[in-house]
Amino acid sequence: MNKDNKTSWGKVAGWYSDLLEKEEGTYQKDLILPNLIRLMDIKRGDVVLDLACGQGFFSREFLKAGAKVMGVDVARELIHLASEITKKEMPDAKAEFITSPADDLSFIKEKSIDKIVIVLAIQNIENVAGVFKECQRVLKPSGKLFLVLNHPAFRIPKQSSWQWDEKTNDQYRRIDQYLSESKIEIQMHPGDKPEEKTISFHRPLQYYFKFLGKNGFAVDRLEEWNSNKKSQPGPRAKAEDKIRKEIPIFMFLEAIKI
Fold it and tell me: Which CATH number fits the domain that encloses residue 47?
């Protein structure tokens, strides 16, 4: 079991909760959520495990779709927020929130979950094989695992960036490293509190397919999502918007238990 809480977002629980609950125009609200609801095809009564659920933003949307939801996160502060917000907004909802690392689901019965979703968290978890092994154990036969992650080919912490070509007046994506796995310290709250940091793990695409396969999953769907944002008017806006449509920032994987 991974007991290392260095990747927990508990220290910035309040800021993270406000970001998802109150701020408009976030990727979580405008891009990830509608795509997840479309692809997960939640049926009333489905038992959904929201793994690394944070303060329960997605959990509550799954509840609205008719699911019974269990939210799990290593950060006690976020689980407290998830429980409190859900009780306030949805007092009759069938939801349970538990503090635990993602690679220890010993409190969940074998073959009891219909669908598991991990949103923007697998890159912050060290023991990926352990997570997939536990997911395989608790999923019902033919149950599905849904992953949303920063695109591993185009968003590599400190090894990828937007660049501007002065000769062609074009923006492009620079990639300095891809196949090598890395463990990188990053700032939790961009633009504020530089002392609050977490660990991000970069792995190439083949890594996820390998460990999913080894742990009894077959990937049956992959989608790549580009940004829905637009640049402010300016001399580079057209080029920025053009390349933004071509370079995906998120990757979605759907894996079925075999």
Answer: 3.40.50.150
196 vs 14, more confident: 196
E strand or H helix at 146: strand 139-150
Q: Does 189 reside within a domain?
A: no
Instruction: Write out the H or E segment, with its range, that includes residue 173.
Output: strand 170-175
Asked whether residue 239 is assigned to any structural domain, the reply reads no
Angle between helices 57-64 and 76-89 (to 10 degrees): 30
- What is the count of structural domains for the chain? 1
Which residues are paired to 200 by β-bridges? Answer: 184
The model's confidence at residue 4, banded by pLDDT at 50, 70 and 90, is very low
For the chain, the C-alpha Rg in angstroms (whole number) is: 19
Distance in angstroms (rounded) separating the CA atoms of residues 195 and 255? 37
Residue 222 near residue 215 (C-beta atoms within 8 A): no
Phi, psi of 208 (to 5 degrees): -70, -40
Range of the domain at 56: 19-154+204-233+250-257
Q: How far is Cα 71 from Cα 96, in angstroms, rounded to an integer?
A: 6
Q: What is the pLDDT of residues 149-172, one digit of tens each?
A: 999 999 999 999 999 999 999 999
